[in-house]
Design a protein that fits this description.
Strand content: 15-25%
Distance between the termini: 42 Å
Helix content: 25-40%
Radius of gyration: 24 Å
Number of domains: 2
Bound molecules: ligand LLP
CATH superfamily of the largest domain: Alanine racemase
Largest sheet: 9 strands, mixed
Number of helices: 12
Structural class: alpha/beta
Length: 446
């Protein structure tokens, strides 16, 4: 089995992450549990920066916080020299709570509220990535009386379809995001942006999709964006200094996934930008990328405890675990495929196909349809690798399941970075209308 970072099988035949035995982690912290391989995330950050260092003179790497937005990860990527992109006031707040330097925060979103824009402005974020003409005008009004100019990028849709699930394609013409390159809308927005004295248009942005396995479409997008930079220069006399190509590089979930390595992806997009700049005779812009999944995805492992096992003769064996679509909605939402490891018997050979079912009251709550595993018994631990991105971030309390704990593991030490929710957390926002009067309270058993 292909495991990344420090994730391996130890001498006891147990899964190990950051030199911590997963069987012990499950005992200490309970299940379901998300374990992050700290060194694995650091390694991915370095792969991005090292590749840029080899291939391109001016660059920035931003972690797309939406993949897993939590204070410890923001702190970690800042230590590694990355900026971040945030897409809401809540993500911005999380970053500021982690003391993230505001100037390295880019603020995205297709419908930022007035309140969020004001928050971003007063926090002093580095850049606002403007998604549409309405936002451009709103922002221009908000910054009217300010002394300092505000750096902005314009998000564009270059009209490129990627080979990924259509829910996570974003670069095509028919998208809710960005201003279309086709039909002159983007050029009109650029001209408009250049008129506002308090806004400083630094460049253009695109993000064509997520979980994309090869750089062909990224290179195509890069070329179109550079051509547009050249067109902007021709029409306005201005060469904008920054080109942000978004995120989107895929990771391996199941064995058929074969994403391009980070270094090759960076090489290909930088080559495309350099070639297009030389053809169009423009200066190399500062190149920015915003990876999310490829930084944290493979570093995360979800650990579940097996409960009921149901065999339907000749059809399938259901293995029910103590988590499911509440902590990982991706299989239900995108038909996402995963593999599983029996964490407490990781060295044994697979003998049987099992269907790993979650515990939500929904037939659709199936985490993995055909997991090849050694014989599974109640009490075993199922580990699902590549669980670091868009799982905890999209987790819910459906069926009033408390969200799991998350621990960061490195060098034999594990620390909680998000504590497990309690039942008390679940009712903390509930209110019973006071007009209904009081009911004599029964003391809760738990
Ligand atoms: N930049 C922008 C503007 C984005 O919209 C995204 C992802 C990224 C960067 C980071 O993309 P990444 O490198 O992580 O692919 N919930 C879905 C993924 C949605 C991605 C949304 N935007 C999933 O679970 O697959």
């Amino acid at each position: 089995m292909n495991l990344s970072g420090t994730i391996c099988i130890n001498g006891q035949g147990h899964l190990e992450i950051g030199k911590c035995d997963v069987v012990e982690l499950a005992k200490t912290y309970g299940t379901p549990l998300y374990v992050l391989d700290e060194d694995g995330i650091r390694q991915k950050c370095r792969e991005y920066l090292d590749a840029f260092r080899s291939y391109y003179p001016r660059y920035k790497v931003l972690y797309a916080g939406k993949a897993f937005s939590t204070m410890a990860i923001f702190r970690l990527v800042e230590q590694e020299g990355l900026g971040i992109d945030v897409v809401s006031g809540g993500e911005l707040y999380t970053a500021l709570a982690a003391n993230f330097s505001p100037k390295n925060i880019y603020f995205h979103g297709n419908n930022k509220s007035m309140e969020e824009l004001n928050f971003a402005l007063s926090a002093g974020v580095g850049q606002i990535v403007v998604d549409n003409p309405y936002e451009l005008e709103t922002l221009a009004q908000l910054v009217e009386g300010r002394k300092k100019r505000v750096d902005i990028l314009l998000r564009l849709t270059p009209g490129i379809e990627t080979h990924t699930h259509h829910y996570i394609q974003t670069g095509q013409l028919d998208s809710k995001f960005g201003i279309s390159l086709a039909g002159g809308a983007a050029l009109a927005a650029v001209k408009q942006a250049l008129k506002y004295r308090r806004l400083k248009l630094r460049g253009i942005h695109c993000h064509i999709g997520s979980q994309v396995h090869n750089s062909e479409s990224f290179a195509l997008a890069a070329r179109r964006m550079v051509e547009f930079l050249a067109q902007i220069r021709e029409e306005t006399g201005r060469q904008l200094p920054e080109l942000n190509l978004g995120g989107g590089l895929g990771i391996a979930y199941a064995k058929e996934d074969n994403p391009e390595p980070i270094a090759l992806y960076i090489r290909r997009i930088t080559e495309a930008v350099k070639a297009a700049c030389s053809e169009e005779d423009i200066n190399l812009p500062t190149l920015v990328v915003e990876p999310g999944r490829s930084l944290v995805g493979e570093a995360g492992v979800a650990i579940y405890r097996v409960g009921a096992i149901k065999e339907i003769e000749g059809i399938r064996i259901y293995v029910s675990v103590d988590g499911g679509m509440a902590d990982n909605p991706r299989p239900a939402l995108y038909d996402a495929k995963y593999k599983a490891i029996l964490a407490n018997k990781a060295a044994r050979s697979p003998v049987q196909k099992y269907t790993i079912a979650g515990k939500c009251c929904e037939s659709g709550d199936i985490l993995i349809k055909d997991a090849h595993l050694p014989p599974v018994e109640a009490g075993d631990l199922i580990a699902v690798p590549s669980s670091g991105a868009y799982q905890y971030a999209m987790a819910s309390n459906y069926n009033r399941l408390p969200r799991p704990a998350v621990v960061m593991a490195s060098q034999g030490r594990a620390e909680v970075i998000i504590r497990r929710e309690t039942y008390n957390d679940l009712v903390r926002y509930d209110r019973i209308p006071s007009s209904w009067g009081e009911k004599e309270s029964l003391s809760l058993v738990m």
